[in-house]
Amino acid sequence: MRVTASRWLIPFLDLLADFLNQDLDRGGLMSDWFPNSWSSFLKKADRISGMVAHEFGGPNGKEKAAGVQLELLRLLQSLIEGKPDRDLYEALGLLVGLEKHIQLSPANKKAAQAAETDYTPLRMRPGRRFFKIHRTKWALESFPKVLDARGYLLSIMEAALTEGELSRLRQCRLDTCSKFFVAKDTKREFHDDSCKVTYFNKRHLAEKYHTKNRQRKRELAEAKNKK
Ligand SMILES: [Zn+2]
User: Fold this and answer.
1) What pTM, to 2 d.p., does this model score?
2) CA of 189: how far to CAs of 57, 168, 206, in Å?
3) Is residue 220 part of a domain?
4) What's the domain range around 129?
5) N or C, fewer C-beta in 10 Å, the chain?
């Protein structure tokens, strides 16, 4: 397993994957497809970003979420499996070009002293970077000016992109599943082991069918030759 400096991104990417897996664009017609996942998504969101949970859990939250989901899916299409074309360029431009606020915050006690404020520990999160000077440590934060649920989810994508971790966000290789997941292990291709088993069983059956077919043809040919 590859361990990188950006593992802190995984829970955020996980939230993004969970959001993309919601059945939002089908007008609730298939609401039992992923049972209870919307409420469990909101719970997860609440742990990571109260704002996302609040906005999507509020009135018309699901409709708002459906619009954001569609936008993110389109962006990802260009970013994950896209070709090096104009769509990719525009997707990158949107992500890195979001108008941003920049904020400097003390990230250790010495820095808090210098800034004459109280020290509160800061953890890694999208848009936050740390640097040190003269034993003071600082957090440099950039977050979208319009910080709503959409901006928040986009900032996760931007962080993954610029940290070189976007390739961890994948779609399950089993085409009847295609669920988004976060590959903690970079070799992972299936969202869970049951999909892996199904995929290889299907392939095995297909191979067996072809082998049988070839055998049948050979037998037929031999029978003809004997005549
Ligand atoms: Zn799957």
Assistant:
1) 0.80
2) 32, 10, 20
3) no
4) 100-144
5) C
